[in-house]
Specification:
Blueprint (H helix, E strand, L loop, with lengths): L1 H9 L7 E9 L4 H14 L5 E6 L2 E6 L8 E5 L6 H14 L10 E9 L2 E9 L5 H19 L13 H11 L2 H12 L1
Parallel strand pairs: 4-5
Antiparallel strand pairs: 1-6, 2-3, 5-6
Length: 189
């Protein structure tokens, strides 16, 4: 996270560290269940609620409250002649918009209604709070939450035993400069 924070300071408007996932939603949309699912993901994962302030030139992580809402922009393009092109432009704009690391949240979503039973949802995250593996996990968890909430059931996901910040702290302790050099040397041997 320190490296990504530093790189973001060099290029605050860059999109190199943006991650996005686009989902095609077919069928009747339950907007309340969708909103509730996104907000639950944000409350569930501390990493997604982390923001980074500078203190003496170094990043300091702070957690936003669990009740923070996942930013969601909604666009209804039903009946528009150029709906597909407009949707593509809206989703691209979501993926390319800069994140404010100090303000957050470092996630966003865009929901585009193309037809009565056809929608596109784009989830955007800054790489400082997610990676390729975690985006797939979020997609699975979103699907489980959305299905449960649509049916009026409670959150079906088990409590998290470890949060990403715990893993990052362990990695920072375990991967000292000496250990990294030794690992690099082992590779070169």
């Amino acid at each position: 996270q320190q490296r990504l924070w530093f790189l973001a300071q060099l290029d605050p408007l860059g999109t190199s560290y943006h991650i996005s996932l686009e989902l095609e939603l077919v069928g009747e949309l339950d907007a309340a269940a969708l909103r509730r699912s996104l907000d639950r993901l944000l409350a569930r994962h501390q990493a997604l609620r982390t923001v980074f302030h500078a203190l003496d030139g170094q990043p300091v992580a702070t957690l936003l409250p669990p009740a923070t809402a996942w930013p969601l922009a909604e666009h209804d393009l039903r009946g528009e002649a150029d709906a597909e092109a407009t949707a593509a432009a809206l989703l691209a704009a979501c993926a390319q918009a800069p994140y404010e690391l100090a303000r957050g949240p470092l996630v966003r979503a865009v929901l585009v209604r193309l037809a009565e039973r056809r929608h596109r949802l784009s989830l955007g995250l800054h790489h400082i709070v997610a990676d390729g593996w975690s985006i797939n996990l979020l997609a699975q968890e979103f699907g489980a939450l959305y299905a449960a909430y649509r049916e009026g059931r409670a959150d079906p996901l088990p409590a998290l035993a470890v949060q990403y910040p715990d893993y990052a702290a362990w990695q920072r302790i375990a991967l000292t400069p000496e250990r990294l050099q030794a690992l690099g040397g082992e590779r070169d041997a």
